[in-house]
Amino acid sequence: MEIEFCIYTIEEAIVARSYGVQRVExxxxxxLGGLTPLGEDIQRCxxxxxxxxxxxxxxxxGDFNYGESELLQMKISIQEAxxxxxxxxxxxxxxxxxxxxxxxxxxxxxxxxxxxxETTFHRAFDxxxxxxxxxxxxxxxxxxxxxxxxxxxxxxxxxxxxxxLSHISRARIEVMAGGNIRPENAHxxxxxxxxxxxxxxxxxxxxxxxxxxxxLDIDTEKIxxxxxxxxxx
Length: 233
Prior knowledge:
Blueprint: E1 2-7, H1 10-19, E2 23-26, H2 39-48, E3 52-56, H3 68-83, E4 88-91, H4 102-114, E5 118-121, H5 131-141, E6 145-148, H6 159-169, E7 174-178, E8 196-200, H7 204-210, H8 220-229
Parallel strand pairs: 1-2, 1-8, 2-3, 3-4, 4-5, 5-6, 6-7, 7-8
């Protein structure tokens, strides 16, 4: 099973390299739910080496129903990610009835593919009504992987759904679990068939709840607990 760290700082990128994980998803503005990082931070993350750098493409907070000007901004961000050496991009576009927007996602996918980037459909997937049908659509569109908690606050509460999605995928798309993954529940995913797990390496939410001006707190105990739980050396 592969490991992806969700990171917001270069310090966390260095930690990811030290643990030898496969990927990082680089974001900024945690307090807004994560937005597209700056080009200079993408470059710094890439230059650190080690894990693949996958860049969140999200132009604003809120929903995932983007207008044409926002779609153009996302295309520019994808081009910038490629220019700075990113390995992949992470995005998701929904329409005004909260379904996958086939046309707009296809436009972004075609651009990413032309630039040689892998593509992850992010947790916009969680709010969809029919995850199994949605997965088939993402496969048809050509996404590399999907990141999801299967609509649960805690991904480990959706074990049966993960098993179903893994069965449907049949190696046509990677299924990556994310959502409050911790040492005490990480082992559950080993029996679901998912390809990867995704988690933050710092106690962001815990610290933000106590103090919005929190300092970085990389949680090595959490990291090592999760890696041990799924027996990653």
